[in-house]
Amino acid sequence: MQGKNIKIYPPTGRKSNIQKAILKILSEKNAVSVNELNQKIQPHQPPLVRGGKLLTNFGVMQSPPDKGDLGGYKKSYALTRSLKGLRDAGLVEQISSGQNEYARLTAKGKNKINYLKLEGSDALVSNTWDGFWRIIILDIPEDRKSEREALRYLLKKANFVCIKNTVWISPHPYENLFTNIKKDLGLSTEIMILVTDKLDPETNLAFLEAIKN
């Protein structure tokens, strides 16, 4: 930011957590206003308005806070800095509508959400097997190699095992996640997702052998 007389108040050190919270909120709607994000992430903070002006463009406020308002300013700064970081990373885009600013996920942002769902404590699924197998078959062309590799990484993170070059099997209930990934990436015919309560003996043996390796 430019300006010799502008003092920068540092973020609270929670940028990564705030960014994850923002991504999660944006994954639930097509677009969310910046003030709505502020209220959901910091429910007891006032709207992002200082000096009668709404904070826009995911930017950083150009003037220091009023006396007695430093705490709220720091929290608002952390939120807007996190939003700007997400935008600069290509995960979020800005939409202007009248006096309001909205944020929404990009295709890259939606893909990031899928990674986050497989990380940390929020990714835990039931340890009790429901008796069903999840089988995912990939048939992604070479010109979409990066998406194919990303999918393979996600499948491994979800504890799927590959029993053939394109066939992945798991007992874990991640079929809804990969159905959403299939939709987000526009891979309507390149990914097949099957849920079954039976495997033939040869397939079951191949699964057990793959787990050992």
Structural overview:
39% of the residues lie in helices and 17% in strands. The chain is an alpha+beta fold. The protein folds into two domains: 15-108, Orthogonal Bundle (Arc Repressor Mutant, subunit A), CATH 1.10.10.10; 126-212, Alpha-Beta Plaits. The protein has a four-stranded antiparallel sheet, with helices on both faces. The protein has a three-stranded antiparallel sheet with strand order 1-5-4. A hairpin with a 2-residue loop joins strand 4 (92-97) and strand 5 (100-105). Helix 1 crosses helix 3. The chain is elongated.
Fold topology:
Elements: H1 15-26, E1 32-33, H2 34-41, E2 49-50, E3 53-54, H3 70-88, E4 92-97, E5 100-105, H4 107-116, E6 133-138, H5 145-157, E7 161-162, E8 167-170, H6 175-184, E9 191-196, H7 201-212
Antiparallel strand pairs: 1-5, 2-3, 4-5, 6-8, 6-9, 7-8
Helix pairs in contact: 1-3
Task: Tag the structure with descriptive keywords.
single chain; 213 residues; alpha+beta; Arc Repressor Mutant, subunit A; Alpha-Beta Plaits; 2 domains; 9 strands; 39% helix; elongated; disordered N terminus
Uncertain segments: 1-13, 49-57, 59-65, 67-73
Mean pLDDT: 76
> Can you list the strand order of the major beta sheet?
7-8-6-9
Number of domains: 2
CATH superfamily caption of the largest domain? Winged helix-like DNA-binding domain superfamily/Winged helix DNA-binding domain
* CATH architecture identity of the largest domain: Orthogonal Bundle
The CATH topology name of the largest domain reads Arc Repressor Mutant, subunit A
Oligomer: single chain
How far is the first residue's CA from the last residue's CA? Answer: 52 Å
Distinct helical segment count: 7
CATH top-level class of the largest domain? Mainly Alpha
- Give the tally of β-strands: 9
DSSP strand (E) fraction? 15-25%
Instruction: Profile the largest sheet.
Output: 4 strands, antiparallel
Large-scale geometry? elongated
Helix content: 25-40%
The structural class is alpha+beta
Rg, Å, rounded: 22 Å
The run of helices and strands is HEHEEHEEHEHEEHEH
